[in-house]
Amino acid sequence: MASFKALLGEQVLLPIIQADTAAQGVAIAGAMQQAGIHLVEVVLRTEASIAAMQAIKAAYPNMVVGAGTVTNAEILKVAIAAGADFIITPAVSPNLLSQLCDCPVPVVPGVSNSADVLLAIEHGFTELKLFPATLSGGAAFIKAMGAVFPQVSFCPTGGISDKNKDEFLTLPNCLAVGGSWVAPSDWVESASWDKITAACAQANQALAG
């Protein structure tokens, strides 16, 4: 099975899509694809989330579309059945990690402290999401974990923006940064798809540079 890092390829921005309708999700994804984004996370926080994820995959077959905010076995089952290419959780528990061990696609469990990191490692996971990143120690936490758990890489999410992303991306154990700053709700509500494209393009250029 490919790792999450392998799915990312050269992309180090994990853009988060939160959609109220399937059509809205497709429009957001389309705006992101215009900026060269090939992998996105659809957070399962609205009733339309699953439909949006499926619609994005249908509209853009080459796009890698993952499911976020997976918190239990039932949601995990629904996400996999809907075709999620990867799974991201906001937190971990022994029970959830046990369910994730049998997942047929890459999984990025969410951690917020060193105990969570160790628990995830004990279940075989070394690609982890730090959430909420800035409230859980930020770049300093990730740097400290590199000395204790050198096999682990992180994708911080929560409080990441254009202003602080580079603090994370300069760390060798940070594989990507996730966030919704490239598609804020007011842009989505006003159908400002060009703004989303521009923000993603700027972020990609800055990150690549």
Automatic annotation (TrEMBL):
Keywords: Carbohydrate metabolism, Lyase. Pathway: Carbohydrate acid metabolism. It comes from the Bacteria. PROSITE patterns: ALDOLASE_KDPG_KHG_2. It holds the Pfam family Aldolase. Its EC number is 4.1.2.14, 4.1.3.16. It is an enzyme of class 4 (lyase). One of its GO terms (molecular function) is (R,S)-4-hydroxy-2-oxoglutarate aldolase activity. Homotrimer. Belongs to the KHG/KDPG aldolase family. This is Bifunctional 4-hydroxy-2-oxoglutarate aldolase/2-dehydro-3-deoxy-phosphogluconate aldolase. The lineage of its organism: Bacteria, Pseudomonadati, Pseudomonadota, Gammaproteobacteria, Alteromonadales.
